[in-house]
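Incident review: delayed structure delivery

Summary: a single-chain prediction request sat in the queue longer than the usual turnaround. Root cause was a stuck worker, restarted by the on-call engineer. No data loss occurred. The affected request and its eventual output are reproduced below so the record is complete for anyone auditing the incident later.

Affected input:
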Amino acid sequence: MSTEIHPEEANVRVLYHNLLSAWNRRSAVDMASLFTESGSLVGFDGSQVNGLEAIGEHLAPIFLHHPTAEFISKVREVRFLSADVALLRAVVGMIPRGKNDIMPEVNAVQSMVAVKTNDHWRVALFQNTPAAYHGQPEASERLTQELREELKASKLADKSSQGF
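Output delivered after worker restart:
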């Protein structure tokens, strides 16, 4: 197995980071703008939304009426299905606004299919699936611990970038 990183992998990871960053900023416009015109979103609750415009319309009232929690993520894999199509798989936790720890009951597995057109990567499909691990409490606990370690590392990185 090669350890060589695909030259476009960083771009796919940046797209995913920008998607979660838009969520964390509660910006429906910014989040939707990262999708292709015919992109699809499958939400945590199973809701399915198709099309860039519909995705923005779906997200706007969520951000307006709910104090959405912020994502902390760990990318598990970026796999290229072709030169212009990539699958990114990640796990995420959510931190409620004003809190400093994740809510294990809403940990999730995320999948993103990205496509490259005109030298720009866009989201063709984004799916957010609960990491329920029915009957496997130890798997849920391992994921929670792993995400807490990511959160701790993220906080340390923030402090070091601020000169602390």
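Verification: The chain has a mean pLDDT of 92.
Action items: add queue-age alerting; document worker restart procedure.
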